[in-house]
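Follow-up to my earlier ticket, as requested here are the two runs.
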Amino acid sequence: MESMKTILAIDDNRDILYTLEQIFNFQGWRPLLAAGYEEAEKYIKKEKIDLILVDYHMPGVDGISAVKEIRKKLPKVPIIVLTIEEEEHIVSRFMNAGANDYSLKPIKAVDLISRIKVHLQYHEKSQYYESYDKGISKVTLQKIEDQMKGITEFLDIDMLEDITQIKKKTLYRYLQYLVKEGRVEQQYSYGDMGRPRTLYRWI
């Protein structure tokens, strides 16, 4: 049986925390709620957290600073920033601080659930494959590079499996290695039906 995922939400607005709590409970996730980063620290120190939501505009420690502090303590846990801001330079600040994604306010449950699910899935798979880096073959890497270099658009793993003729499980491991090495760019696509996809493109 799959273990219950624990999600920490940090937001100074109690109404938003209540909304997030209801969403998490509906999805079968265990909610941890904090009205600011200082309050969240007790959870960060003691709890096994699978994903963190952080509000951008908070008094005291703001969202950017909170993300930086969280990253020092939890370098691999997915972080999604909640914000009303859409400007590219602000989004870049989130990502440079260590966030994995952002979701716009007012909260749209379907979109937020999709984003959380894709990051939970990615994090779980990354942990599973993390120990496999030593088994990376240069020949297979070269084959993937040769097949992907001429493609300019983002493709999902099913398309890349057809192109490279490498089995999905093996291909995923190599793609994660290449993302970590900065040779492949990764982004997420969220469909209308709430079915998130991970897309890849050679840099």
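Run two:
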Amino acid sequence: MNRSASPELSLLIASCLDSGSYQTQKVESKQLFNLLHFHQVRPVLLSYIHRNQIDVDFKPQLTEYCKQITFSNMLSAQELVKAAGMLTAKGINVYAYKGCVWADWLYGNIGQREFGDIDLLISKDNFSEAVDVLTADAGYLVDDYRRHLLDAPEIKERFFKTDYHIPMSKATDDSSVLEAHWEVAYPRLLFTFPSEEWAEYTEKYFFLGNELNVFQQEYQFLLLLVHHGGKEQWRKLKYIADLAAYMSRYGHSTNWAKLSLLAHEKGIYSLYKWSLGLLKGLGFDWQKEWPQITPVDATSLIKYWEAMPRESANSSWRYFKHGLAIHDGLRHKSNLLWRHLKYFSEFKLLWHKAIWYRTEKARSA
């Protein structure tokens, strides 16, 4: 147990790490419930307290929540398979990414991971065609804002150069959101996983009786680090649980030399080392076959996890500062700075966005 964490957070950290050394403490149910909601680790905690015979006051409610999560996840998984199948049938290469595929890949249990969206990676070359297929054949709609950008020819190309995905929802159910990605993150964040190299790292994954395109585990592990540690900055324990699950399940079969080389090539070796160091610093049981890593002091993150702060509306400055910290060397850091400057020099796009938001605000007033 980390001494800087409350009893409630200590229990959640232990469950995410699947720690066998957790010492049972009295926890305050309301605080534990609030932390669970923020960190999105309800199935992880339920499994852990079952295995270790730990009791919490709201265990019946937690069990019911997890049943609902499993049901929702299964619907999302079926929708993912359906959407990917439609695109593949049209000759469009599509990759399953995050969400329910990671629940199965990391935990072997589709109900063990909380997620919100269905995520697909699609090459920019086929992206417009893919959106048309998802709209016409699968019943998805592009939100008004993105549709506005896509329908403006002088803005569309700028949008594709500066953004990375389009959320789509069903006309009959706006709670079912499919995120179609052509990049893994904003280009200005400098996480370079271009579609030109996807075929090199492709492998098939058997999921709900169907074959899906996914990535080899080393490549996919870096995608996990980029999303959880690069973009989301490990701000929720669900990301720590995923990292621990990967190490427990695949740490012994990972080609760490290959992974290290890829991380160096992409300028995120610092992110790779820091992320594993964070896991080790939290007290994860480190195996001798795994990379030699220096533990990272997790105190500042623990304080953040306890505080559960609201996300700021504008995250550009936070992204930039964090990007400088996790990218390697002067070349990659300079490139990161250049990408941000290029983004903020897109005056026409930014002005176009501002006008749209101002018009929408006046319309809804």
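The only thing I checked on run two: The chain has a mean pLDDT of 91. Let me know what else you need.
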